[in-house]
């Protein structure tokens, strides 16, 4: 899932929840003002929108879990197929961090 598509899904979800909130407010006003059939119609519409928003949220959650599991499996496979490369990269990153910290401390700008 790309960042663009996840942002689009997030925006759509927020729009759906805002619609549910707005309709809830309308329902409360309607019940106070009129009651009766109009309130029942708004309540039914609100329930449908809430169900749709919940279904969409459930779908987003399932997609996120599936995407995460795919990334975990791919990473696990890569590490098992290239253990020495991964160890080398980790050691290199550790060495760079160590050098940066050492340089920081020698310049008397260490915290502590």
Number of domains: 2
Which runs of at least 5 residues are low in confidence (pLDDT < 50)?
none
**Percent of residues in beta strands?**
under 5%
Q: How many extended strands? A: 0
User: Cα distance, first to last residue?
Assistant: 42 Å
Number of helices: 3
Radius of gyration: 26 Å
Please summarize the sheet with the most strands. Answer: none
Task: Sum up the overall morphology in one term.
Answer: elongated
SSE ordering = HHH
* Class per helix and strand makeup: mainly alpha
- Residues in helices, as a percent range: over 70%
Mean pLDDT: 78
Keywords:
about 110 residues; mainly alpha; 2 domains; about 90% helix; elongated
Question: Explain this structure to me?
Answer:
This protein is mainly alpha-helical. The protein has 2 domains: 79 residues; 30 residues. The chain is built from 3 helices and no strands. Helix 1 packs antiparallel against helix 2. It is elongated. The two termini are 42 Å apart.
Brief description of this entry?
The chain has 112 residues and is mainly α. The protein has helices at 3-33, 36-81, 83-106.
Topology:
Blueprint: H1 3-33, H2 36-81, H3 83-106
Helix pairs in contact: 1-2
């Amino acid at each position: 899932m790309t960042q663009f598509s996840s942002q689009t899904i997030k925006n759509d979800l927020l729009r759906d929840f805002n619609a549910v909130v707005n309709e809830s407010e309308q329902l409360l006003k309607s019940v106070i003002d009129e009651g009766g059939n109009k309130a029942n119609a708004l309540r039914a519409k609100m329930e449908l929108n809430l169900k749709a928003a919940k279904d969409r949220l459930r779908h987003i959650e399932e997609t996120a879990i599936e995407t995460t599991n795919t990334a975990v499996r791919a990473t696990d496979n890569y590490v098992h197929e290239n253990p020495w490369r991964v160890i080398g990269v980790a050691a290199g990153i550790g060495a760079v961090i160590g050098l940066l910290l050492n340089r920081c401390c020698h310049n008397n700008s260490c915290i502590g």
